[in-house]
C-alpha cells in the first residue's frame, strides 16, 4: 500500500493541475504553449532527479534519499503556489519533480529488494492499481478546486499531501537495502549506467515502454487545451474525461497481473502494444474526420491509455530481471529514459500549437508504432539467447 502511494505523487502533480492550464494562461497573460512548457519542465526534472537518486539509493540505502526527495517535493509545490511568472513556475515544477521522482524510483527498487524477480511484474501491476486512482480523481478534484479558489490552491494541496506521505515514510518504512561500496564519482556512475544500458533485455523492454509512454505525455500536454478550448467543456468537468482512462488502467493492470500467472510476459507485452497501436490509429481517424466529436474520440483514447496498464508493469518487470544490487540504478535509468523522452514529446506537442486533436493523435500513433517496432526487433534478438529460468517463453 505504501509503495503504491509513493508512486502517485508524480502523476498527481501532473493530472491535478491540468484543468488549471487555461486559467494559468489567462492569469499570466501568456500563450498556452508557454504554460504547457511547465509540463516539459516537470518531466525534465523527473529524468534528472532519477539519474541522481538511483545511485544514491544503491550506495546509501533507500530510506534517506526517499525522505530527502519528499521534502524537496514539498518545497517545490510551495514554490509553484507562489510563482509570479511562467519562468518561475517552470523552475518550481522542475524542483518539485526532482524531489517527487524519489517515490517512483525507490518504490520500484524496494519491490526488487523484497520480492524475487519472477514476482516483480505482478507486484508492479498491483502497485499500478493504486497509481490508477490518480487519473480517476486528480483532474476532477483539480477542476472543482478552481470553483472555490484559484489555481495556486492546487499546489498548496499537493504540498500538504506530500507532508502526510513523508510522515508515513518516517514512521512505517524500514530500510530495505543496506547500501554498498559503490563509487559515487560521476565517471564511475556513468560507467555503471552504461553497463546497465548495454543489457539487451533491459534496453529492449525499456525502449518499448518509453515510446509507448511518449504518446501518453503528448496526450497529457494537449488534452486540457483540446477539451476546454476546442470542445468547449468547462474546467470543472474536464476531469470526467479522465475517468474512463483511470478505469481502463485499473482493469488492464489487474487483468495483466492474472495473465502473468499463466502466460509468458513477453507475449503479453507484444499483444498489448499491438492493440495499443490499433487504438491510436482509430483515434487519429476519428480526430481527422470529426466523427462523433468528443464522444467519438474518447473510446479510442480510453483503450490507448488503459492498455498502458498492461504495457508498463509488464515491461518494467521484464527489464528489471537480473538486477539485484543495481536495482536502484536500473530503476532510475528506466525513469531517465521514460521521462527524458516525455520531456521531448511534451515540448514537441507544445511547439506544434495545434488547434484540433489531429496532431495529438498523430504523435500518439507515431510513438506507439515505434514501441511496437522496437519490441518486435528485440523480441527476435532475445529469442536467440537463453532465457532466465524464471522467465517462460
Could you characterize the architecture of this molecule?
The chain is an all-alpha fold and 393 residues long. 81% of the residues lie in helices and 0% in strands.
Record keyword descriptors for this entry.
393 residues, Growth Hormone, Chain: A, globular
Please tally the helical runs, counting DSSP H or I stretches of 4 or more residues: 17
Low-pLDDT sequence parts: 388-393
Let me know the largest β-sheet: none
Which structural class do you get from the secondary structure elements?
mainly alpha
Number of domains: 1
Radius of gyration: 20 Å
Oligomer: single chain
Helix content: over 70%
Q: Mean pLDDT score, rounded?
A: 84
- The fold-level CATH name is Growth Hormone, Chain: A
CATH architecture: Up-down Bundle
Number of strands: 0
First and last CA, distance: 31 Å
**CATH top level class name:** Mainly Alpha
Brief summary:
This protein is mostly helical. Helix content is 81%, strand content 0%. Helix 3 crosses helix 4, helix 7 runs antiparallel to helix 13 and helix 11 packs antiparallel against helix 17.
Describe the SSE topology:
Elements lengths: L1 H6 L1 H7 L5 H8 L3 H29 L2 H20 L3 H29 L5 H12 L1 H16 L3 H21 L13 H12 L2 H31 L4 H4 L1 H20 L5 H25 L3 H27 L7 H26 L5 H26 L10
